């Protein structure tokens, strides 16, 4: 069988993105002896614009446009993404159908004084660049101040250590991948705190017609993660989830049962709509539809409409 000897991976330049790309490169080289994997680090618009909240400059897709262009014009064969940065609607000509086993999907609180969320002093500044985290934070502690926080993981940690915030919220997965999990003060767990859609999932993107590459990457797919990711994205799609909507969806499998939690909230955390369902794995699609319908019945549409008018 003829095998392309070199595969080029397009990646963002942040330390976490490079870790993810190197991780995928190592998995591919391990599985396919003789294969050489090279990285093509690119600067994305999302990495360049750091002075404005993500929701106000067009949302998550800003982190992958340049990577997708590199794929479409043949500069790269494969792109590695944090799946939570990938819009639910696919880019024509490109496929995302391979996901690695999910890392820790939850959020973490890092505080300078080592205190947990419940013990932060009233009025403390908590940094987060996410409306989802802000809404859940204020729902639990309306007396805190949610302050915008941008930059890569190391930049965010540095801003905390410099005293710009009393605490910050980051994804556990990124901290664990960079060996910074010793900084975690508290893991923010369900049902009080739900993660972003597909948080902790690394996904692979490539050209639809590249059958050879598909054969190389397909063995890396983790089926349980794929089921959970598809379920979460289905809920998000039906609720038109974007950076502008405080939306959290969390699916996991326990003893052949799919457990699904979702919430939609207002930015100030005063209104939080929640839904919880459990069922057989075969019913994942209908369950996602039922959860989205339940949130809409509770008033998610009004929250979405109000947000789109205010943004």
What does this 3D model show about the protein?
The chain has 311 residues and is of the alpha/beta class. It folds into three domains: 6-99 and 201-221, Periplasmic binding protein-like II (D-Maltodextrin-Binding Protein, domain 2, 3-Layer(aba) Sandwich); 107-188, Periplasmic binding protein-like II (D-Maltodextrin-Binding Protein, domain 2, 3-Layer(aba) Sandwich); 232-310, Porphobilinogen deaminase, C-terminal domain (Double Stranded RNA Binding Domain). 33% of the residues lie in helices and 24% in strands. It has ten helices and 13 strands. The protein has helices at residues 15-31, 45-48, 65-72, 131-140, 153-161, 172-177, 211-217, 223-238, 284-298, 300-310, and strands at 6-12, 36-42, 78-82, 94-99, 107-111, 125-127, 145-147, 167-171, 186-188, 202-207, 247-254, 257-265, 272-280. Helix 1 links the parallel strand 1 (6-12) and strand 2. It starts with 5 loop residues before the first strand and ends with a helix. Mean pLDDT is 90; it is low at 56-60.
Summarize the structure.
It is built from ten helices and 13 strands. The protein is α/β, with parallel strands linked by helices.
Q: Main traits of this protein?
A:
five-stranded mixed beta sheet; 3 domains; Double Stranded RNA Binding Domain; D-Maltodextrin-Binding Protein, domain 2; 311 residues; alpha/beta
- Report the structural category: alpha/beta
User: CATH fold name of the largest domain, please?
Assistant: D-Maltodextrin-Binding Protein, domain 2
What would CATH call the homologous superfamily of the largest domain? Periplasmic binding protein-like II
CATH architecture of the largest domain: 3-Layer(aba) Sandwich
Query: How would you sum up the major sheet?
Result: 5 strands, mixed
Query: What pattern of helices and strands is seen along the backbone?
Result: EHEHHEEEEHEHEHEEHHEEEHH
Strand arrangement, major sheet: 2-1-3-10-4
Count of spatially separate domains: 3
Q: What would you call the shape?
A: globular
**Terminal-residue CA separation:** 54 Å
Low-confidence stretches: 56-60
Name the CATH class of the largest domain. Answer: Alpha Beta
The share of residues in helices is: 25-40%
Average pLDDT score: 90
Radius of gyration computed on alpha carbons: 19 Å
Number of helical stretches of at least 4 residues: 10
- Strand percentage: 15-25%
Secondary structure tally: strands: 13
């Amino acid at each position: 069988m003829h095998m392309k000897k070199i595969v080029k991976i397009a990646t963002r330049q942040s330390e976490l993105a490079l870790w993810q790309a190197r991780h995928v490169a190592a998995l591919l080289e391990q599985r396919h002896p003789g294969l050489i994997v090279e990285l093509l680090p690119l600067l994305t618009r999302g990495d360049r614009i750091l002075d404005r909240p993500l929701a106000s400059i067009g949302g998550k897709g800003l982190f992958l446009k340049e990577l997708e262009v590199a794929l479409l014009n043949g500069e790269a064969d494969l792109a590695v993404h944090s799946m939570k940065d990938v819009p639910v609607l696919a880019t024509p000509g490109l496929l995302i159908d391979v996901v690695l086993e999910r890392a820790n999907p939850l959020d973490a609180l890092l505080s300078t004084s080592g205190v947990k969320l419940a013990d932060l002093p009233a009025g403390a500044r908590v940094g987060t660049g996410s409306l989802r985290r802000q809404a859940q934070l204020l729902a639990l502690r309306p007396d805190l101040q949610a302050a915008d926080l941008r930059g890569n993981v190391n930049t965010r940690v540095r801003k905390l250590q410099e005293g710009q915030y009393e605490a910050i919220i980051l994804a556990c997965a990124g901290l664990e991948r960079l060996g910074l999990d010793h900084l975690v003060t508290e893991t923010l767990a369900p049902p009080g705190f739900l993660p972003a859609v597909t948080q902790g999932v690394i996904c692979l993107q490539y050209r639809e017609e590249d059958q050879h590459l598909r054969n190389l990457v397909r063995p890396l797919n983790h089926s349980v993660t794929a089921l959970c990711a598809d379920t979460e994205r289905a809920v998000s799609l039906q609720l038109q989830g974007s950076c502008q909507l405080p939306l959290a969806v969390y699916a996991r499998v326990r003893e052949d049962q799919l457990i699904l939690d979702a919430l939609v909230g207002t930015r100030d955390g005063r209104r939080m709509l929640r839904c919880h369902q459990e069922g057989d794995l075969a019913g994942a699609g209908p369950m996602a539809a039922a959860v989205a319908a339940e949130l809409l019945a509770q008033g998610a549409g009004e929250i979405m409409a109000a947000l789109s008018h205010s943004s």
